[in-house]
What does this fold into?
Amino acid sequence: MKIAIIKYNAGNIQSVLYALERIGEKALVTDDPNQIRQADKVIFPGVGEAGTAMKYLSERGLDQVIKSLSQPVLGICLGLQLMCRYSEENNTSCLGIFDEEVKKFPVQSNGARGHSFKIPQIGWNNIYDLQSDLFHQIEGGSYCYFVHGYYASTGVHTIAKTDYIIPYSSALRKDNFFGVQFHPEKSAAVGENIIRNFISIH
It folds into this structure.
């Protein structure tokens, strides 16, 4: 099993490597198009800002490489957002794999029951309406770890939802492309099982 992690200027790669090691898998961190294309599975992680990340990808031709992949691809956090059509973050045109838009959470100082929502969302939240092999044996309502100030709207590619101020897509899928807004590598046993499920997908 060859697993490639796409190397670009958006961190959290080390924690993904550790998560793979915990389930007995190794991965190659690379920005080489040939090595990415030859991998059995590709992980597209990310923490950072959409405009800068897209500029980096396009300057190296990695935007076209990612869109051309036919093996299973998993985008994580910013990776999911970059796989969408457009992000409000710095008015960024993204990869367009998913037709959803990425928007900034609306400021809401006083939510339900007097609860104040902080932006970005940082911490544990639950996922529901799970609709993919990615969530095999994962129960609806399971908790995952999130860190984000922007969200993907719900649409035809939504395979999991989360509520924070509003309902949004916590996971997307189109064909061989998957994206999760949460960090499975930081989501304890639930996240570990989601990574295992992704590795198992053909």
